[in-house]
Specification:
Distance between the termini: 46 Å
CATH topology of the largest domain: GMP Synthetase, Chain A, domain 3
Strand content: 35-45%
Shape: elongated
Strand order of the largest sheet: 7-6-5-4-8
Number of strands: 8
Largest sheet: 5 strands, antiparallel
Helix content: 10-25%
Structural class: alpha+beta
CATH class of the largest domain: Alpha Beta
């Protein structure tokens, strides 16, 4: 079986110096390899094709056959790196914390240690609905999983 670390090394070699970065490599039985990349800007089909060709050119099908898929990080992929949080500022996130709590809100800030979510909540005070902004700052170390929420508004 082709080693995952080999694919990671090849991907890093290709992506070095580019605005693209590796988010995941999966190697399943019978050498079904999935490489997932993201970028500080958009990831194009040409980027995926170029990386695929690079990886393929550094593996020997005569020695060991494989199936290789290179894709961009889809909207259903959880955010894993600070770069991804920074890129998604202004979008709504669903965040699950390591202690099981769940939060959602607009990502208003992402720095090297924390993210800040903001959402409007409605409180009833004296029979009146009052809108308030709820702000939650979360350390990356507290995040179990964070995904972008798709809005069709």
């Amino acid at each position: 079986m082709i080693e995952r670390i080999k694919i990671i090394e090849l991907a890093h070699q290709f992506l070095e110096g580019k605005s693209l970065f590796l988010t995941d490599v999966r190697v399943k039985p019978v050498n079904r390899i999935s490489v997932i990349i993201d970028g500080d800007d958009l990831v194009g089909i040409d980027d995926c094709v170029a990386l695929s060709r690079f990886v393929e050119s550094n593996l020997d099908r005569e020695t060991e056959d494989f199936e290789l898929t290179v894709t961009s990080a889809g909207i259903d992929e959880p955010l894993k790196f600070t770069r991804q949080y920074k890129k998604n500022q202004g979008r709504t996130l669903a965040v699950e914390l390591t202690d099981g709590q769940k939060h959602d809100g607009k990502l208003t800030e992402a720095n090297d240690e924390t993210i800040t979510l903001e959402k409007v909540v409605i409180e009833k005070i004296n029979n009146k609905n009052i809108k308030k902004n709820e702000i939650k700052t979360i350390a990356y170390s507290e995040i179990q999983k964070a995904t972008v929420v798709i809005s069709f508004k």
